[in-house]
Amino acid sequence: MTQVVIVGYGMAGARCAAELARFGVKAKVLGAEPHRAYNRILLSNLLAGKTDEAGVELPDAVEDVRPGTRVVAIARAERAVHCEDGEVVSYDHLILATGADAWVPPIEGLPEALPDRVAVFRTLDDARRIVALAGSARTALVLGGGLLGLEAARGLATRGLDVHVVHPVGHLMERQIDPDASGILAGTLSGLGITVHTGVSADRYAETPEGVGLCLSDGRTITAGLLVIACGVRPNVDLARGAGLNVERGIVVDDRLRTSDRHISAIGDCAQHRGQVGGLVAPAWAQASVVARVLSGEEPLAAYHPTPVVTRLKASGIDLASMGSLAEEPGHEDLRFADPARGTYARLRIRDDRVTGAVLLGDNPSVGQVIQLFDRGDAVPADRRALLLGRALGGAATAQAAPTPALMPDLTTVCQCNNVSKGAIVSAWRDGHRDTPAIAARTRATTGCGTCTDAVCGISDWLSASEGARG
Amino acid sequence: MTPQDAAPPGQPHEVPTHCPYCALQCGMTLTQSADGRVEVAARDFPTNRGGLCQKGWTAAELLDHPDRLRQPLLHGEPVSWETAYAYIVDKITAIQSEYGRDAVAVFGGGGLTNEKAYALGKFARVALRTKNIDYNGRFCMSSAAAAGMRAFGVDRGLPFPLPDLAGAQTLLLAGANVAETMPPFGRWLADQRANPGAEQIVIDPRATPTARVATLHLQPTPGTDLALANGLLHIAIAEGLVDEEYVATRTREWEQVKRIAAGYWPARVERITGVPIADLERTVRALARRPAIILTARGAEQHAKGVDTVSAFINLALALGLPGRPGSGYGCLTGQGNGQGGREHGQKADQLPGYRKIDDESARNHIARVWGVDAADLPGPGVSAYELLDSLGTDSGPQALLVFGSNPVVSAPNAIHIGKRLRNLQLLVVCDFIKSETAELADVVLPTAQWAEEDGTMTNLEGRVLRRRALRKPPPGIGTDLAVLAELASRLDQSAEPRERHGHPGEGADRAIGDHPTGARFVADPRATFEELRRATAGGVADYAGVTWERVDAEDGVFWPCSSADRAGTPRLFEEGFFTPDGRAVFHPVEHRPVAEDIDADFPLYLTTGRLLAQYQSGAQTRRIGPLRKAAGSAFVELHPDLAARLGISHQQRVRVTSRRGSMTAPARLTETIRPDTVFVPFHFAGEQRVNSLTSDALDPVSKMPEFKVCAVRVEPAEPSGEPEDA
Questions:
Q1: Looking at CA atoms only, how far is residue B706 from chain A in angstroms?
Q2: B73-139+339-525: which CATH number, 1.10.3720.10, 3.30.9.10, 3.40.50.740, 3.10.129.10?
Q3: What is the value of ipTM here, to two decimals?
């Protein structure tokens, strides 16, 4: 049987092992981290204290997993990998799922080995470290106002810390949202105990008796009990580069996720497909599935097709969805709705009836619908207000909601269970069936689920009032 | 000759009984006046509390309907019962001696009384000695049944009585449109909504009448309920709403399910389902406010992953500590009138009476003793309904089929193909009281009694055994299903001397009983049949041993299990524990996967199917009733106005809907209550309006439930605008 070895037991590696197992291929998995596989997406919940470590674990799909086993070299000629502890593991096919590492920008005064009160936010150990630091701190500094930085900030604020976010660009999440959305988001964050400083960079790191401090480009200095650096990630490509594989920003792969060596694939954050490097789980899982299908023979010609990226930030008090591009282009519809007082903002760009980009912030009941329209390239509703204002799908409610029986057309069905129209009830009343039991006996209205009883009563009362004197 | 005496002229009298249609089995009173007219009145029974829908009120209109069959038909021509029986027995005998016993198959129905369902299973195993029996309940309850069995060790639709619903703080209905399928059920829903702070949440791709009165409607993409349920579980874990003590003391296998839930974070589930995260969160928080109840129905179950979808909802219910807690729980809503009893007494391919497994040695021994046969002579498990229908007339499949209480030409999926299979048979026998679409294809049609002309029992959606009472005798020349089975068994026995001779040689003392003629073991009397059913189910999961007709009358029905006449029934199943070996409920790890047939460029829309208030099942009965025809006389294709505009289709215009398996035509009905990527067609109609011509034959790997609820289609005007086609 073909020996498949996976290097990396993160979300991509674990998923790939599970997919292979589903198709009857038992892979050997070597994971550098000492834990069982966990869901990186949930680390912000862990940070916020919303879950414990058991709550972020992923299912064991394979038996042959070796956590805490770091691979240091690939001997391509021998088709073997060398582990840090000296062990050599042979493969027929190797899958690199080495992920990405947090990137720390050069900051004057910040040593390469991060000081005690400074942490990146990438791994389970990072999250543990931040939680430990937060326990003894009242304030926190987060460098980086992207998705990860804001998730970290939200988690720390949930723990009761006063949080400051420093972001060198003019507005938050600049790759995902526009300045107007950023402004409203900053307002929302402020209500949650998070102060945002945009358009300022961190010039210098300094330690203070109370903790840590950043000197900003506008001359201010902010101090706090801990500093979280969330400035993005870099694909972990050292192993691949050392083995002479084709590496650009990530490990270059084709549509079947093969590297320049046909016995080696790469998936997830470490891979570069059609010029794009990852960073999100959905594509990593799709890639894992493709590799598993190809290697197992389930679908030898399976190919990976990138899907559109949707960014979602959802924590108590924050509800943000972003997708596609908001760039100004001629011929695009540009729909906007802003209600800063309620923290709500919606902007959609549409071309040829298709959503090409959107930002939805705050209470937007249409968010699920917009994401699916974008994801699937489906046509948007003719009435665009449905998307901006979240008008629920569905026609008029049933008859009992009618404000007054006088305005109800005779053909309106009052009793659905027995298909009784208003006209039939009026006829029954005029024939002398003057209360609800009598009308029910005659027409069977109200005898099903009974919820039209008020409506029938109302019609009877209305007739008594309008015709009673004559009747 | 007729199996029953002709009824005397009607004396004015009345009987308390139940509606012939759905599993709510509303109480009703039937009155026959001196001139023979039959009137229906609603009855105050603990399930319907005096309610009836239009179907119930008009149920008696079929009794003396001109379409009613009054004589057996052989190849469409009226013949005597003697001729019909002789033909059937000759054919069966010839087919079995040429192709073997399994070459004759039986197809039953979830509308048959307990007595008939029991007798039918016994007839197949003892008189025909074929393994090939299954029934239309496979298309109905099988997914919920399988998931219930593996979680709780028992499958009873509602493990608690209906009034518990009214007390729930939160009620979640997954894929249930009770406002149309069992309208008087709505009384319990209205009561539940009236509780202060109550939440009533409906999951449905359509804004159905049920969804429109709910406090929250989740409108997922068809085929994504499993992801939705796993996503709800994820949030329950993330928000600390799991009942840890309950999970630790009353369940097993939680850890793996918990880890799988970690993979269903809200943003992923939102993208798969289209349901906003905020609504998912609101749902879970509401369910955590006990008492809370989760119910599933066909919308969640009729999928190629139906069993796993139900398991996902059960996992959620278990994590929140609902099942077995007073006022809370999980249940499924049974569809057909005796959908519950019909799945307990042996018309299922792998089952023996009392919800016993046919491959369980002790079950076989017990049933063999009751039936007076050698356990070794009982056939093993057969194949499921769709597999059975799909094999008819093929080299390895049955050459003869006997149909009772079902109309698979309309109700089976991939119906064009199934119709061809039925036509390939050497013998098709249908027992029915009207000429259903399946009876139209039959070699022999035997006219049988209607619900108001027979006694028997039904088991409703609560597991409550009810009495169906005869108001009058069947009209002259009309038989009963039980009489037909008894007569066929007797005749087969007489013609089967050589067959019996090279059967299994007798062993041991039981053989003395086994030497009795097979026909003598079948009786036409329903009460005697029920007494035998009691003995057969004794000790089984669905134990009816202590249920008597007298008790049913005296106690407003008896809930099974009820093991002896001096013990109470069991309205609440899980008060003391679950029916598993260790008494704990079992979590089952389940993963979402795509629908069997996803949309693509050629078939760019989802088709989903369902019911209408004024029709029932294949419509063979209800389409013949004037007021129901007036309310809903034809199929329609429900589509969103935006979709209609893109397709150039206007309201009421005839449209053709086509899948890879076939097409149907019906008028368009434009409504904003449906997603623009989905069309809906009700399944009660035949001919060119038959939506099951399109539905998929993808089956659930466990329950063998077909994927009725979603397949890929395209929609177009039925003819070029303005010029109707001649052909």
A1: 23
A2: 3.40.50.740
A3: 0.87
